[in-house]
């Protein structure tokens, strides 16, 4: 199963899973507490009280960021454009390896960086009316924006922040600033593409005269220039068109590895200055302020355990330095990647990749630097293997469009799914009676993160053992995950539900086997379910009557059954 598991609006007739007071998310997270180091508890089997990611000091984060910026500095870069350009930041909240930002600078005399806090991102999900963005991801976003402002300021600019729809804000700013071009990164899923179309439509209604045009007496509409920059392999460098993208990952991987090359990271100029002058800033209302959770209608989620991710490009660069260079974990990644507890069993890059504060090409180049200076082995390659999976889901979302959100998936598989409210809520809240499921779901709600292994297990349990509509699980992940992106999330859920583009990727995850293999001493489950800590280690995942009643029997739990050879036949799946 793939890793890093990391829509147009309908009526809300199916939002019965939510409290009437959901507008402030109290019903979703009423039992959760805030991250507070003074209240942090010890992790069983570890001297660590909690896991901050990155775990290095703010000073070390700053040094790592500055070092990265220096390595990619090119003082010979020159401007060659005229007039004003707007750089519309979306899911690319970084300065390093940001082609839209660099092209905007090169093609102008002045750049106006803009981020729009789109209210649609804080609405409800497509089918079941869950909150579209939970408080943990919103907090991470705010931190990313704050750090982007800092990094732009260090380069002579700032970030203008406005609350509202991009098609209104970008159009208004382009008119006020006489911008000749709006640069932005291209997205692949329907909601984001719709916004691009609306911005383009709005710009066509604007006419401005400025230095960006050769004929100074002529008025033209600003143009929207979309740049591809979200993947390790550029879409234009694939050895096939996206419509001919292989439906089997291995075929795709072997083709790009043998026939495509990865472009170098974009260099940085000495400065992106000058910023807009005072008169222009006064006309457009200043730089604006970052939103607060309260302004977004969200209550802070408070938790005293688990991982606390710090948003922003600087934190992302600090995490790369910490994991690769300081802790030297890259060389053992393949052996540890299936862990579930702690910060260093895997890279933990996915939240920063999802918000674009970390470039996949930067990771690629850091892997290469590590291999040159320390060691090249299966583990160093496997990080790139995972990034190729991430690329693959992004390209699949181009090929298959909205079908990745549909019940039958890209292959239009016909299945009878339940939407049982009580069963779903037991899964959502971690009350299934299976410690491995419940611990993972409590981690998700408390931290916005779950290990890749955990995501596969809870997905399999929801769709295979409970028979619940997979879209309910996918939309709940959309609410909670801080590393949510639509292509990876829905791509992984279609695979897990057996409706993905590759029919061979269709597996059942046996909870007893997974528990014995990946949490044999019950360290993980007893961390998230402290009531199990008093039990013998071998009983923590199998507590019997010492734990809550199991809500459903396991689908494949017959003692004599060969669990390794269960293959899909009439709704069955091969087992792990």
From TrEMBL:
The keyword Flavoprotein applies. The record marks 417, 470, 493 as: Electron transfer via tryptophanyl radical. It comes from the Eukaryota. Its cofactor is (6R)-5,10-methylene-5,6,7,8-tetrahydrofolate; FAD. InterPro entries: Cry_DASH, Crypto/Photolyase_FAD-like_sf, Crypto/Photolyase_N_sf, Cryptochr/Photolyase_FAD-bd, Cryptochrome/DNA_photolyase_1, DNA_photolyase_N, Rossmann-like_a/b/a_fold. The keyword Transmembrane helix does not apply. GO terms for molecular function: deoxyribodipyrimidine photo-lyase activity; DNA binding; FAD binding. GO terms for biological process: photoreactive repair. FAD binds at residues 333, 346-350, 386-393, 483-485. Residues 83-218 form the Photolyase/cryptochrome alpha/beta domain. Keywords: Chromophore, FAD, Flavoprotein. Binds 1 5,10-methenyltetrahydrofolate (MTHF) per subunit. PROSITE patterns: PHR_CRY_ALPHA_BETA. May have a photoreceptor function. Belongs to the DNA photolyase class-1 family. This is Cryptochrome DASH. It comes from Rhynchospora tenuis.
